[in-house]
Amino acid sequence: MDCMVLQGGRRLTGEVSISGAKNAALPILASILLGKGTSTLTSVPAVRDVLTMSKVLTHLGASVEARGDRYTITLPGVASCQAPYELVKTMRASVLALGPLLARWGEAIVALPGGCAIGARPINLHLAALEKMGAEIRIEHGNVHACVRGRLKSARINFDIPTVTGTENVMMAASLAEGTTVLENAASEPEVSDLASFLIKRGARISGAGTDVITIDGVPELRGADHEIVPDRVETGTYLIAGAITGGEVRVVRCRPDHCDALLAKLQEAGVALKVEKEAIQVRAGGPLRAVDVKTLPYPGFPTDMQAQMMALMALARGSSVITETVFESRFLHVLELQRMGADIRIEGNHSVVTGVERLSGAPVMASDLRASACLILAGLAAEGETRVSRVYHLDRGYERLDAKLAGLGAQVRREAERV
Ligand code: EPU
Fold first, then answer.
1. Which one of the listed residues 3, 116, 260, 375 is annotated catalytic?
2. What are the distances in angstroms from CA 301 to CA 189, 347, 358?
3. pTM of the predicted model over 0.90
4. Mean of the pLDDT values across residues 350-364?
5. What domains can you pick out in the chain, each with its CATH number?
6. Cα dist. 101→10, 97, 108, 172, 406 in Å?
7. What lines the ligand 1 site, CB under 6 Å?
8. Atom of ligand 1 at shortest distance to CA of 305?
9. Low-confidence winner among 28-42, 84-98, 182-196 (lowest mean pLDDT)
10. Among the residues of 118-260, which ranges form H helices?
11. DSSP code of residue 41
């Protein structure tokens, strides 16, 4: 197991290029199961979760050829309708195989993902929607068994909560269903829209993606298509904060500023100087950082996937900020680690009250999930002395070459085998 060792206090400067979004690549890869034919995907990020999804696809019968960020995938037919627990337990997003397998091949057996560090994360809304579309679903021996005779039928689905992967799963299934399916209170994240664009290129008839009402006219089959994965807005935000927290000057290129509005507004409110171009954002630390309150919400609200990183920034701002997490119930595991670095943070229910301190001090800390790891790396970049972040396999799940990209901006960072 590796850990990341940082010597804090370096101003980051220079340019960093953003990779394709993990959370767009995963559903797009899963959607390959919706039809035969060959698709070519570019800007596929080199992160562990993508490799896991490729393994799921290969296990199910696809041939996946990866050359750098270019994936050519062919599905001659499925060899199995079962996504095994060994793969699913390492990545919840494997549940995205459920909708496509069921809609195209009439059967899906996907291990229930189980618990997760950031909250309970049930998939009841995915299952209820698919049942409404005619699937028979039972849970046995830790697996979800779903089957349907013939095609799924259309339905009007009103999600209790705008679930991202739930919307994606049902949108994929509805692409091949009989009739017109309407998804209300759907997730409007850019990753949902990117999946919809790919499906439309393959012949799906989808309108409204990017809003909270998505209409899907089912078609009998989908073909292969070429697609470039949208840039990762969470990676973008993480590097913007890396620039701001080190008092540096960083230009983040090959990104989609229009997908980062809520974060950019908060950074500006906190006194961070930003120059926004069409596909780039320049960040420059202005005067002292000011505390700002943040509340996570579904898109276009402030993303829960940037909450931990924003907290690292607020730990060094002037004044107190209240960070409220409304999407996941226990996404504050990074707080205890930040406290080990000298941060002044108090948790009250789903609020964290962060009172900025003059400086953080480097310490050995432990990553608990992907974004918590990014938060600790950011804190380590700004802290005095050495920070050792263990369990960086969490980071490898979702950030492409984070250590190399940070080193390219002048950070003193190295990866080491963990001492036991
Ligand atoms: N929820 C239910 N029932 C469901 C589905 C969701 O109660 O059937 C609840 C969840 O427990 C949560 C809320 O609804 O409280 C929203 O969860 P959502 O389903 O939107 O999350 P997700 O689809 O499992 C995706 C991302 C997450 C990101 C969230 C929120 C992917 C592969 N994952 O998860 O990304 O935090 O949306 O934006 O797209 C990450 O990249 O680090 C990450 C965790």
1. 116
2. 10, 22, 29
3. yes
4. 98
5. 2-19+231-417 (3.65.10.10), 22-228 (3.65.10.10)
6. 49, 6, 5, 10, 39
7. 23, 26, 93, 119-126, 161, 163-166, 187, 191, 304-305, 327-328, 370-371, 398
8. 36
9. 84-98
10. 124-132, 164-175, 190-201, 233-245
11. E
